[in-house]
Write a structure and sequence with these properties.
Blueprint: H1 3-25, E1 43-47, E2 57-59, E3 64-69, E4 77-87, E5 95-105, E6 110-120, E7 131-137, E8 142-146, E9 150-152, E10 157-166, E11 177-186
Antiparallel strand pairs: 1-4, 2-3, 3-11, 4-10, 5-9, 5-11, 6-7, 6-10, 7-8
Amino acid sequence: MNRIGKLALVAGILAIALAVPIAAANVIYLYKAQVTVQPVTPVVWLYGPDANYVSLSLSNTSPQVTLTIPITNSSETYVYQALEVKVNTVWKGPWYLYVDSCSYSGPNLLTSVELIVYPTTAGSSPSSPTGTITITPSNTSCTVSGSNSITLTAGNIYYIDFLVQPSLPIKNGVRPGTLTIYFGLSNESAQIVPTS
């Protein structure tokens, strides 16, 4: 084989050697990914440490809270930390908590039920109240007064206490009443008017 033939052979081998990586570099791999995204709500409603004192039941989907309120001859019944509210950091705040509507069934003996909201952190004493919403239940209606809304800050945990004030005196054998509260949340404005 002459010199030109050898050069042509080397050039051909070199061209093939260079072409293989170039062709391989153009290979594209496609992957199919499936991602399940869990929706995150602005707040999570939880049973507070003393929820059992008012037989509290709740639903995070509404959010709906139902209390069985004991009616006694005491001038007032104060239930600490019945409800816990965790405000998620995913949602930018502030958020405004209000009572959208409520209903009551039972003896028409309650003057008012106050919802006292305050922030707290694990291992520390409760802070001063952020706000109070007053509910006046009767056997035909349920009205809301007090704060139009209560400001909640993202990342904070809040407790809601219940102050129950009956109309005295109360006869023996009066059955408990059931108060159902539908909470609302807004990030628009603190000037919210309940629908009830």
